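Hi P.,

Sorry for the delay on this. The queue was packed all week, but I finally got your sequence through. Input first:
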Amino acid sequence: MKGKNQKKKFWMLGYLGFGVGAIGMDLSYGLFNSFLTNYLTDVLLLNSTFLLIVPVVARIWDGINDPMMGTIVDNTKSRFGKFRPWIFCGAILNAVALTMLFTNPGFEVSNTSVNIKLYIYAAVMYVLWGMTNTMIDIPYWSMVPALTSDPQKRNVVSAIPRFFSGFGQIVVSVFTVHMVTALGKGNDSVGYSRWAMIAGFVLIIGAIITVTTTKEHGALPPKEPFTLSKAFKTVKSNDQLLIFMLTALLFNTGWYITNAMAIYYFDKVMGDKSLLSSFAAIGGVGQAIGLFLLPVLSKKFSRRRVIQGAMITTMVGYAGMFVFGPILSSFVPFAIFGLLGCIGIGCIFVSQTVMLADIVDYGEYSLGYRSESIVFSMKGFLQKLAYTIQAIVIALGLKFSSYDATLIEQTPLTKNTISAMMFVIPPIFIILSFIIFTKKYKLYGELSDRVTAFTENRKKSEI
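Then the structure:
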């Protein structure tokens, strides 16, 4: 009896190997999301117009590529399962693409002339990174609903990879500036290349750990082959998936803008980009705390209330950062509110994973068939779409303020624009996200209970 209780108590330890894979994935995505814009404008000295064109073109392609990858994964049948082979292959290819994206193979860099070859190279590597990221991201997160359908266990299971994911993001945010300087010995181009190579190596090792330690449970092969047209129909017909997509897109866009603008803010406005490491470390602690708020608070409050509370906490954090950042320039209270905001952000990110797992079950309940990978393909697509909106907002802001990366001291207009993009525009997106979630997301309460009961009965009938 004691052994049985111990096993029940530590059941979550079996999912640690699965979670480890998220470290390398977020090293790759963190570099892409938080530092690529700065690398393109300040290291390769590309015109910000690049950010208005290439991300949009890439997202149009992703609109086809991501559901296509989800369809391929859902149709996969192998002795290793349908998720793990793609996780392994995707990790290798994404590691290569990441290194090439942050490596200048020898093209001339100039702020006064346009090297068309450098622009083409950057654009191709940008698209290839997105495609290879899709190859690993979709099957990895698609495994979550296949691991358990118990609501409380799902809260914990979703928090584990998010914890490791958050750790990867902390490493990127805290150490990138220092590692680029140390590895490049003053040459940021070389430093970024070597740092990306290290991140790619960690990505591959993490994927190997995941595929060798995690077993797929409840991942049923489709009764008939999944087609791309059926994939689009699945997305279009799942009303709660569509509401989730809009809610997550708005929230993630707000945070991604802040993430990408942080290095500009601390370097060009505060005059000390080393402060980014301190801010990122504080934010990382906040997100780590937020990751486990959902499973803890969900025991006393409904998941819906926890998510709403996390969004409000994020808004309060932004308000405090704006007051004690650009207005009063007091770092300590600024950091405290940054910690508070990141607690809310961490809670929302793990909530999004749980919500998608629930939406997979809801899709089976309402549409009559199950598709983990198609639903979770929207997660990666939304992340990249949020990055695209982020890139457009930043590009427009930099153009409006006549930003010049070669200047040590920026104009007052540039500094104010950077501050606005850091603290004013993001909470607007988050407020809109809160309104849509509150008014339109219905997968809670009685409906959620019916879906859970339906899924459990289906699994029993398969035994």
